[in-house]
Amino acid sequence: MPLDLAIILPTLNERDNIAPLVERLDAALHGITWEAIVVDDNSVDGTADTARELARSDPRIRVIQRIGRRGLASAVIEGACATAAPHVAVMDADHQHDPKLLPNMLETVRSGAADVVVASRFLVGGSAAGLDTARREQGSRLANALARRLTGTELSDPMSGYFLLETGRVRDLAPRLSGIGFKILLDILSASPERLRVAEVPLQFAERRTGESKLDKVVAFEFLVGLYERYFGQIVPTRFMLFATVGGLGVGVHMAVLALLFAVLGSGFALAQALATFGAMSFNFWLNNWLTYRDQRLKGAWAVLRGWTSFCLTCAIGAIANVALASWLKEAGVYWVLAALAGIVIGAVWNYALSSRFVWGRF
Description:
Spore Coat Polysaccharide Biosynthesis Protein SpsA, Chain A; seven-stranded mixed β-sheet; 13 helices
């Protein structure tokens, strides 16, 4: 029978969830020709190998193991571009999304009744009980309210990660999608040149079967990033703007340290500028790792220490130029605040280019 549906399963350390989920998909999709595409972000627990072992006996299982790339949104884009199925569904691999909804979702799109079908936790008949804390549920509801108000998307759960649509739509929109963060549904809806017709089905959001949640307190920040991407991402790249925003906060840290050491404690300007640069650089690494490169975040004491060291080393030339230029301008009679800002600007472009590649990139 012709292939009907591809289910994209973005994974990160979901080894023990894959086989049981395949069994649930097989039971739910009786009579539908399907394939599951596991898009794994190089999980350390061997998720990709587990999926490949399943694929040896079940050709409906396919694996894309990504090296040096992470993030749910980009995983969905790559999965949609890798399948020949006319319809694609996106769902979590942690068993919080019920596969039994898929046949009805597929029929709704295939019949032309809707362009996108979204499984909603907040529709009548649905439940968000699987959210691990009441605070997360409240945060999810707040994010949904903001999404409806700011994007005009009239959905009860626009932040849902479980939805189905024609694969061709995702491929057509791929050049416009940011590929950043978790909220790929909002990205698709806002990037479409025509307003997509959306239907919702109630979802009983279950508890995670095994493993740990990938969501954290930065979800609200990520929502703001999505809004920026929608309105300004085609003008100035989102990642660079995040890096620049962190750099702006770093300027505040830099000037505070410099003012304390130079203006208050009377230290020499060159020494104060050097220490302020080092302090701001450390602050920038921490905040960039937490926000700007959240999808590639370094975790664990050794990884963070190595990343911080790499960040300092790759920024060393920029830091030297920063201190040298600022000191020269100060000696030339330029007001110390302006001299410091000039040094910061010189190092900024260098810091972004090298840290993107060598700290959070492929290497």
